[in-house]
Each structure stands twice: as structure tokens, then as C-alpha cells.
Amino acid sequence: MSITLLASKHPKIIRVFESCPIRYSILLCRLSTEPTALPPPSVQQNDDSIVKQAVQLLKIPHHEWSTTQLIHLLFSDPAPSSRLLFQIARRLPSSSHALKFLQFLQDNSPLPDKTQSLSSTFQAIVELASREPDSRSNLYELYKVSKEWIVPLTINSATLLLRCFGRNGLVEESLILFNELDHSLKNTHVRNVLIDLLLRAGHVDHALKVLDEMFQSKFDYRPNDVTGDIIFSWLMKRERLGRIVTQEEIVELVLKFGEFGVFPKSIWITKMITMLCRNGNTNKACELLLELMNRGAALEVAPCNALLTGLGRDSYRDRMNDVMAKMKEMDIEPNVITYGILINHLCKFRRVDEALEVFQRMNESQEGDGVSVEPDVVIFNTLIDGLCKVGRQEEGLGLLERMKLQRECAPNTVTYNCLIDGFCKAGEIERGLELFDEMNKEGIVPNAVTVNTLVDGMCRNGRANSAVKFLDEMQRKGLKGDVFAYTSLINAFCNVNNIRMAMEIFDQKLREGCFPDAIAYYNLISGLTQAGRMDDASSILSKLKEAGFHPDIVCYNQMISGFCNKNRMDKVKEMLNDMVKSGVSPDSITYNTLISYCSKIGDFKIAHKMLRKMTEDGLSPTVVTYGALIHAYCLNGNVDEAMKIFRGMGSTAKVAPNTVVYNILIDSLCQNNNVELALKLMDDMKVKGIRPTTTTYNAMFKGLREKKWLKQTFELMDRMIEQACNPDYITMEILTEWLSAVGETEKLKNFAQGHKASACPSYIGDLLP
């Protein structure tokens, strides 16, 4: 910054340095890009006298100037210095006065080489013009004058013009000026000014082009720390003009600067690492930080913590170890946040023992490992929560007692909430309530999460009525649960088919102004649908919409299924139309429900139409789709059509039938006395590795009994024992009545004993991989 600009912002500086001319001269020399020898005090005083006299002569109108007096004052021996002429020009009342002075010097200066004098004077003119109200138009006109009069710009003039052009939005003019500058003036400082103004104006590509030239320079205008600050501070701004710079470009810029020993500040590196991790480029962030370490960047722990957080979120454990090892190599001491990140990552993946090892190492000051780090309350809470999530609540209580002994890490509400949640999820509600009482005695205030946790725990363990009483008691004490607690209650009562109580809680909370969330509405709609109370379900659906929520596909499917069960096709159509208006597309479950309903009522034409529409909508029919059609055809006695669909499943649709489909067909075939085909289906199941159930065998035994085919019956009985498929009372009733009548009681006895002998091994075998 020039002394003039500095003084214009701070008038006190003018007074200080005018009272001490020597200091003023020294500062001017230091700030100037062109070194000037400091004159002796006597010369300095003489110069000040000349400046004052010249200013007095020049303040009058131009046409009244005394050329003779000025020439005598300025050009008598010794010749005036550039500094002296600069001081005269900058003290004139306006840039137009100063410009006339420049013209006077050009016309009257007897100096053989007056280039430097004219350049210095022009610099003063630029400074004056930059402070004037109409500087936007004047500055560029002044630049034109300098070219017309062949007055070379100084580096200070060029820099000031660039800054002023940028401040006034004259970006194109800035580029013209820069391109026309002499190569010797295009140093790092000037380029930094240009890059800064280009970035501020959104001319990103132009700025990066200038920067690229600096990267390619070996000596003249290499990038420096100022260049880095300009680029990195711009990159870290949330809102930037111009095109978006990609993450790849940012990483490339950082690495290029690193080749010149220029590195971003720690806070900027931290932001870059965080940005890359949040945008799914964790590997790129890791490579960047490790490369900066390798190049000797002076890093702090903050960017390392940011990277560890990203790596932990993406489960890159090996990379986390690499970063920790590199931190140790670079003597970057981990802090409590570092350890907290590691412990949180390990607890998240249920590796609590390893988390406890890290926790233990925090307090161990080992030689070469740096200083110990005291854990904070967040780390204690993370460990307690991790222990509770793997069912080790008692160890969590041990950490609670340890916290009580440390003033800096006293337990808080989160600590107790973690423990209460752990005991509630383990079904130990009483222990959770004991902790609740303890935290009250300790003066730790419970919050809505505490109440929610206990209410949800009671509901999950079949104690919904106790949860209601607890919630009412807390409400009387001024401690309310939030919508989560009421959602748990509604869901619990719906699960035990106590729809009356669920509706009562729902209506009560609406009256109290505690508006349910979408989940509460969904749970209630589901419960009402299962109970067959479709009118009530429709009423809740309307309230859901009034509350500003939008039904999802699961909600619509439940409503459609409920109305199908009630045979209310008008309401089914209403739901389908509502789906279309809401922009919710039917899924496979929607179509399966409709196909199943149409098939059950015998409207196979509509069912097949639905099947085609399902395919047109890009949805592939599932085994449930075909199973519904097959079951309906079998119920209507059309087994041939059912078998046709069954064969098409594997050949055309490429959908493998399951046990349910085989059971439907085998039962229907046996009822229609087509036992031979049913036996073939049994063999087909064996080939395809589909395991028959007791229902499959019962259907076959009924069919074989009608045919009186003992041989095939005995084979199936043996297969049933081999497959450890336990008979039920229907199996034993069929076989006992038939085999006793034909004198095969021994076979029946062996069959029963065979199942008893194989029961234990088969059960264990089912558990083995």
C-alpha cells in the first residue's frame, strides 16, 4: 500500500510524519518499489521548502502560472529528484491540477532523461484521481494519457490502477492494462493484485490463466504466500461469482502451490478436507493430506481430525491407521477430539473392546508417544452408549461411577439417557427407572429424550398401561415427552389390537396441541386397517393430509388392501386416483394386492389386465403375483390354467416358484385326483432344492389315500423323516386312520419313532452353516 493511500485512510499519520520529515522520508523509501537513497537532513529541509513554494505557485489557475519562477525553482542546480516532483504533485488540489503539472514538466524539463521523473509524477496523479468522486471514468482516461505522452508506469502506478479498476468494475480495462505493461512490471505483486480483482469479479478462467503463468515461471514472478492467501481464501468462500471450481481443480491447485513451498492455512486445509469428505471424496481427501505432510506443510491436528471423521464415516479403518501413523511421524499430537473420533468410530461398529483400549491409552504417558490427554464427557458418553448397545450395561455403570469422581467430567443428562436406553432395550425396565430416580437425586435434569426412552421401553416390553401412567405423572411434574413418546404408545396399543386406546391417545394429544408426526399417523392407519375399521382409517388419512403430511406408498397400499378385504372397490379406485394426484406411483405390492383381489372374486380378465399394466409400468411380476393368480384359478377349479401360469413362471417370466406356490398346486391336483402330476411336482421341488413343508406332505397323503397308493406313501414318509419335517396332528390323523385300516401299524410306529430320534440332531443341524 502506498504512503498516500495509507495516509488518506488514517489522517493522523499525515500529522505524525509531517512533524518529523526524516521519518516520512524513510517510510516513503521503504514502501516504494523503486529504491531511493535517503537524503541528508539539510537536503531534506531544502526539498520541503521547494515543495511548499512549488505548491503555492501551482495552486493558482493554470493560465496564471509563472513559468520562469517554476523553472528557476525546480530546475536550478541540483536537478530535482523524482521523489521531490512526486511530493509536489500529490499535494496539489486535484488530479487535473497535477496533470497540468505533468504537462509542464514534459514541456519544460531540461533533464536529458526525464522518464523517471514523469513516471513518479504520474503516480501521484493516479493517487489523487483514485480519491476523487468520478474516479471510474478519470482513471482510464489518465491511463490513455500516459500512453499518448509515452509516460511509463511505475509498479506502484500499475498496481494502483489495477486496484482502482477492479474496485470500479472495470475488469476488461484491467486486463488491457496488464497485457500492455512492460514485462519487467509484471512481477508477483502486480499479478497477485490482478488475480484478486479477477476472482472478485467472477472471471475465474482469466485468473487461473494468470496463476498458471506464475506456476510456469522459474524466477521472475513465482507465486508466494500472498498468492496462496488470495486463491485459498477465495476457494473457501461459500458464495463465489463465476463458474464453479471442481474439487479436482482445488486439489490440483493446492498441490501445485505446494511445489513452491506455499501451503494453505490450517483452517483452510481443514475446510477443504471436510468438503471433500462430505462430497464422497474421502480417498481424495486422504491423498491430499498425506501429500501435504510429505511435502513438509506445517499442519496442525484440526485437518487430521477432519479427515479421520470422514474416514470413520466411510468405514476406512486401515486409512485411519495410516493417518494416525503419519501424525506420529510428523509430531502432530492427537487431542481429545482425535481420540473422540476414534472411540466413536469403534463404538459405532460394535468394537467396544478396541474403543476401551484407545480410552486406556489416552491417560498413559508413554515415552515417545507424547503427552497424555484427559477424556472429556463426550468420550465417556460415547463409550457408555457403545457398551449399552452391545448389552454391557454393567460396564457402562462402572464408567458412570468413574465420571462421578472427576469434577471436569461429571455425568450429564446424556450419560443417564444412554444407560436408561441400554437397560430398557435389554428389558430391564426397573433398572432404567432406578437410574431415572438417581439422576433426579443427583440434580441432573431429565429431558424429553429421557421420558421418551422409558415410555418406549415400557411399550416394547408389553407395559403400555404403565407407560401411560408414567407419562401422566411426568406431565404433572412439568416434564413432558414429545411426539416420539405418544407414537410409541399408539404403536403399542395398535399392536395388541387396542384401537380404542390408541385413538383416545391420538385425539387427546391433538386437543392438547401436541401434533403427531407422520409415523404416528401411519401407525394408527395400519392398526385401524388391520382391525378392519376402514372408515376410521380414512378419517385419519384425511387428518394426516390436513396436518401437511403426504401419504407414502406403504400407507396407500395398506388402505387399498383394507378396502379390498372389505370388497369396497369404489374406495379402492378413490385411493388409486388419490395416489396419481399425489404423484405416488404404484409399486409391486399395489399391483399384487389388486391382482389378488380380482383373482379371488373371479374377475380374471381384470387381473390379467393389471398384470400387463404392471409390466408396462416397468415393474416385474413377483412370485406373489403369480401365486395369487395360481391360487385363484385353483379355487375356481381351473387347475389347467393354474399349471399353465406355473410353467410360464420359469420359462417366460424367469420367476422361480416357492413352497407356497407348490403347496397350492399339489393340494389342488390331489383334490382333483391328479396325484401323478402332484408327485411330479414333489420331485421337481427336490431337484430345485425347494424344501416341502408339513402342509405339502399332508396334501400328498390325502391324495395318495384316495388312490390307495401305499408304496408312494411309505417313500414320502421316509423322505419326511430324512428332511426332519415334523408331522402335525393332521398328518397323524390321515396316516393313523388309513394305515391302521390296512394293517400297517408297524410302519406308522416306525414313522413316529423316527421323528423322535431325529428331532434333536435335525434341530442342531438347522443351526449350523
UniProtKB/TrEMBL annotation:
It comes from the Eukaryota. One of its GO terms (molecular function) is mRNA binding. PPR repeats lie at residues 187-221, 335-365, 376-410, 412-446, 447-481, 482-516, 517-551, 552-586, 587-621, 622-656, 658-692, 693-727. Keywords: Repeat. Transmembrane segments: none annotated. Belongs to the PPR family. P subfamily. PANTHER family: PENTACOTRIPEPTIDE-REPEAT REGION OF PRORP DOMAIN-CONTAINING PROTEIN, RESPIRATORY COMPLEX I CHAPERONE (CIA84), PUTATIVE (AFU_ORTHOLOGUE AFUA_2G06020)-RELATED. This is Pentacotripeptide-repeat region of PRORP domain-containing protein. It comes from Hevea brasiliensis (Para rubber tree).
